[in-house]
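thread: overnight batch results

M.L. [08:02]
morning all. the overnight job finished for the chain we discussed friday. pasting input first so we're all looking at the same thing
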Amino acid sequence: MAGAPESGVAFYRNDFGLSNPEPWLVPASWKWLDREDLSDGRQVSVDWQPLEASDFAGVFQEITDSIRRGTFEKTVPVVVEKGTISGGEAGSLFLSGDCPEPLVPYGFLDSSGGFAGQSPEYLLRVSGTRLLTMALAGTARAEEREVLEVDEKEIREHEFVAQALVSKLGDLGELQRGPRGIMALGSIVHFHTPIEVELDQSPEVTTLIRRLHPTPALGPLPRTGETLSRLIEWRSRLGAPAEFGAPFGAIVDGEFQAIVAIRGIWWSGVDVRLPAGCGVIEASRLVNEWRELRLKREAVKTRFAL
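M.L. [08:03]
and the structure it wrote out:
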């Protein structure tokens, strides 16, 4: 269906470009699962293929050229590590590994394949006229937390995201931006800024999603038809799943929550893909971004015991 139902339960599933005109799925039945229900010890084994840097390096050069020409201030290319399941079943990824807060477990399975992940990032949460979102950008290893706190490049990347969200939401009601802090996620840490809006009127959820997505955490800045199309082309060239980085969520009797579908695994049959993205700005350097991409992929492998 095209719009969110006023009551009951529906799931929101779309691709990164929000090209599906009917993204709302109403289940025939549903039930709540607690976090402890999401791990039953089942294991999945994957034989990973070596990931070459050449394709990413080519895209990175195109992005930096575009930044110098003034087309972009920031954008987020995605690389994909591929593998083959050698033990267990892909569907078991729903029940593989623990998922401590603030990570949010998510997943989807149908006859053609599926995806499962543990996202640290909400796109938005809406309850009544209260909207919550966050800026989550700027990454380092946990042992480099003190360095991250003073890293001008990472701070600048984070502020691009936070300021863009404030700009997108400021006319909807009374906005409060929290202080920039650190979100600790085991082996990695991120800058995190909470943002809350008391909306002037009850929102239409689909409209809010389109207003916010993609934020500069996963999308281009500035966000125009041209820059978004260019990013989607780069993502496609590098093999990114269409739903990586897209909003994925559910509405229950008018209360809506949507995560950003990152830190996950996508599969079809025994073929799996592990995508990761990195924010590229003028100050970015290829070797540092390649290192960040590996750090994010390794964090996913650790979470799913892969």
